[in-house]
Amino acid sequence: MTARIIDGKAIAAEIRAEVAAGVKALIGRGGPVPGLATVLVGDNPASATYLRAKRTAAAEVGIVTFDHQLAGGSTQREVEAFVAELGEDRRVHGILVQLPMPTGLDEQSVLARIRIEKDVDGFHPMNLGRLAKKGSDPLFVPCTPAGCLILLKRSGARLEGSRAVVLGRSNIVGMPVALLLIKHDATVTVCHSLTPSVREICHEADVLIAAVGQPELVRGDWIKPGATVIDVGINQVEDPSTKRGFRIVGDVAFQEAIDVAGAITPVPGGVGPMTVAGLLQNTLRAAEIAHDRSTA
Ligand code: NAP
Q1: Are strands 94-97 and 187-191 parallel, antiparallel or unpaired?
Q2: What is the distance in A from the centroid of ligand 1 to the CA of 30?
């Protein structure tokens, strides 16, 4: 069997086009230009690069960004006060605090200061709690997990009644993706670094989500024939044959998996582009919520 490739780049482009149309429609009915405030504490170069990509993507769909950089030595109180101030700014519909923050700052406490109707990353405890609670929905779903779900749905994977396995239990990917899959009626097993027999557990999965940050951990013989595999991992591995001296691989050994899986996301070009698309979707939604409330 040769797996179908789930083209995250193409699906993310569709979503960006949908968001651009949504922004026009919102403005057309008297709504605001959606505004996204980005906050970078310190000068982590990787974070700065991610933020640049997010701002460019936002500008392309008509979202205006307000970019803020706070000194690396900012205190907990200063960062929280700044985030709270953005909550009062009517031009700002979404607030993105880029993680990780410098050591010494309590990220969870900062995230909890974001107003939930502006929490476009979906990391506020209230939004995560609503995701976990039966019969309630969050205002915003975290962008990478939401991207995984869109990829599954648009690739035709059946979730209801399926057996899903999530590798990883982080706050930003593993745990919310598991909660989302449960909301979509999959039966979910979450594995972490202390889980025994991970290979055997993976082999039972109709839907396998790998979010561990371990290059090519998941081998071809871990995968159930015909399964849908979503590879969230972005790992840099040395490769002297390339100009840069490294290449990017996922958490799944792609060349092995492709012979076994029914469908699979590549790395790069799978989940990665979906994360930014999800942020744009959430920012548009935040502006729509603000407009609906102001006209109610
Ligand atoms: P993380 O916070 O480091 O969490 C990794 C998780 O994997 C932890 O829960 C850990 O278990 C578990 N784990 C580690 N080794 C394992 C093993 N051998 N077997 C089973 N579970 C294992 O990482 P993250 O932030 O979730 O990110 C995961 C990967 O996704 C990284 O490669 C990251 O770069 C990538 N990522 C991609 C995007 C995107 O846009 N595509 C977005 C975010 C992250 P413990 O809890 O026991 O430590």
Answers
A1: unpaired
A2: 42
**Whole-model pTM?**
0.96
Atom 35 of ligand 1: nearest residue by CA position: 233
Cβ–Cβ under 8 Å, residues 123 and 135: no
CA dist 286 and 120 (Å) reads 7
Is residue 54 flagged as an active site residue?
Answer: yes
Residue 89, token pair as written in the block: 């700014």
* 13 token code pair: 């482009």
* Cβ contacts of 162 within 8 Å, gap of 6 or more: 186, 187, 206, 207
Q: Residue 177: what pLDDT? A: 98
User: What's the rounded mean pLDDT across residues 30-41?
Assistant: 98
For ligand 1, pick from 98, 177, 234, 276 the residue to mutate: most ligand atoms within 8 Å of CB. Answer: 234
How far apart are the C-alpha atoms of 176 and 169, rounded to whole Å?
8
Q: How confident is the model at residue 296 (pLDDT cuts 50, 70, 90)?
A: confident
Work out the percent of the chain whose per-residue pLDDT is above 90: 99
Query: Once rounded to an integer, what is the mean pLDDT over residues 252-274?
Result: 97
Using alpha carbons, list the distances in angstroms from residue 227 to 4, 46, 147, 181, 274: 11, 33, 18, 15, 21
C-alpha of 114 from chain center: 18
